[in-house]
Amino acid sequence: MIFDLKNQPTTWANGVNEDLIADYPEYIQKYGKVGSEKWWDNYFSGEIERKVHQGKVVFIGERADSCDEIWDIVEIDFNGELAEYDRCGYWKSDEIIVGALVSIESFEISLHQKYGPKTHMFDRLVQISKT
């Protein structure tokens, strides 16, 4: 495993909790504040939806975008759908190599704000399953 959000300081949840308090307090009443023990209990019981994607690392390094700006990325092929991740934080792990099979568990929290919808997206668990 190269990353587990559960083991991180809960500062990652501050922004989403502020948004929920202001715009969707029923979420906190039902599940608890994001990152709290009550919230994690609901997450692990399946009450909070999560997705798991598995793919193969096909590229690591610098690549220019459509504006010729250079980015250091990790590109993963999820069954024909390519996704790019900025190569920072846990994406710089020595375990991330071309050919590695990666499993990413993620979740999102969406709410409606005054000027439209807002979605907070998080990787919960990132692990290498095989190289």
Provide the fold topology.
Layout: E1 3-4, H1 14-23, H2 25-31, H3 37-44, E2 51-64, E3 70-78, E4 81-86, E5 101-113, E6 116-130
Structure write-up:
- The chain has helices at residues 14-23, 25-31, 37-44, and strands at residues 3-4, 51-64, 70-78, 81-86, 101-113, 116-130.
- The protein has 131 residues and is an alpha+beta fold.
- It has one domain (3-129).
- The chain has a 6-stranded antiparallel beta sheet with strand order 1-6-5-2-3-4, with helices on one face.
- The chain is globular and about 45 Å long.
List its traits.
single chain, 131 residues, alpha+beta, six-stranded antiparallel beta sheet, 19% helix, 45% strand
The number of E-state strands comes to 6
Characterize the biggest β-sheet.
6 strands, antiparallel
Rg for CA atoms: 17 Å
Strand content: over 45%
Structural domain count: 1
Summing up helix and strand content along with how strands pair, one would put the structural category as alpha+beta
Report helical residue fraction: 10-25%
Mean pLDDT: 95
Strand order of the largest sheet: 1-6-5-2-3-4
Give the helices and strands as they follow along the chain. EHHHEEEEE
Coarse shape? globular
Residue stretches low in confidence (pLDDT < 50, at least 5 long) are none
- Total helices: the number is 3
Query: End-to-end span in angstroms?
Result: 13 Å
